[in-house]
Design brief:
disordered N terminus, alpha/beta, single chain, 10 helices, six-stranded parallel sheet
């Protein structure tokens, strides 16, 4: 009996350790745990931010692709893209990150208008002195210098169907631009035909374009890498190559390799 009791006592530390491990909340799948601690599995927290005419249910294919990577914890942020101004959406993104992953370094993937929401989010974090860590940013089809097509869609009908942010990336971009920070570590994926003419073939969009944005409009000085994917604007967020490039940049800081980087200086 004494030997059995001693054997049980010797196993007690192991049992306690196992109980501690089993009771730990592995919160990597959904940002930080309720106590505000970083993800236990040390996954990279990635927030997806959709574009115009979309909501939190969009970017599903991208979400599913990145979600299969066990090193990533993927979250989707939604805002009312047909009602919100960029600053409203950015304020919502601040609240979202503070609630979901306040202690983690958060990486972002934006599509179209979502990239400007991310850039204004970064300015809010900086100016308000918020202790929110910002990691890498992948910009998919970003209107980094506004949208020439949105300038043409400035009538009351277009604004009614597309929302006030359309004016902000069109005729109102000179007022919006100073409110946008440039990320410190980011890559850009643009859509186009690669023929110098684009899908619109010079019809109001000189040079290559994705049918909505000129390729040159997507570029931003400081980008660590740049890639052109041959696809229209509305197809880019679901494009398999875009998904692979996005995952690679989140992991390594470039789209293919260091040797093939296309920096924008």
């Amino acid at each position: 009996m004494a030997e059995q009791r001693n054997s049980r006592l010797s196993q007690l530390p192991v049992m306690l350790a196992l109980m501690l491990v089993c009771s730990t909340n592995v919160a990597g799948v959904a940002g930080d745990d309720p106590a505000g601690k970083p993800p236990t599995a040390a996954r990279k927290v990635v927030v997806l931010v959709h574009g115009l005419k979309q909501d939190a249910r969009d970017l599903q294919k991208l979400n599913d692709f990145l979600g299969r990577d066990t090193t990533l914890s993927v979250l989707r942020f939604g805002y009312k893209s047909r009602k919100d101004l960029v600053e409203d959406a950015a304020a919502g993104l601040v609240s979202f990150v503070q609630r979901k992953a306040p202690k983690s370094e958060v990486h972002f993937v934006g599509f179209s208008l979502g990239n400007l929401v991310i850039r204004q989010y970064q300015q809010k974090v900086r100016k308000q002195g918020l202790q929110l860590k910002i990691g890498r940013v992948v910009m998919i089809a970003p209107p980094n210098h506004g949208s020439r097509k949105a300038v043409d869609l400035n009538g009351p009908g277009a604004l009614y169907f597309l929302g006030p942010a359309t004016r902000q990336i069109g005729v109102g971009f000179p007022q919006l631009e100073p409110e946008l920070d440039i990320p410190s570590d980011f890559g850009i994926i643009a859509g186009g035909k690669g023929d110098g003419r684009g899908f619109k073939r010079g019809n109001g969009l000189p040079g290559d374009d994705d049918g909505w944005l000129r390729v040159e409009t997507t570029k931003l000085i400081g980008a660590a890498d740049f890639r052109l994917v041959k696809a229209r604007h509305e197809k880019l967020d679901d494009h398999p190559l875009v998904h692979k490039l996005t995952r690679k940049f989140l992991q390594a800081g470039f789209f293919e390799s260091k040797a093939t980087r296309q920096r924008i200086r």
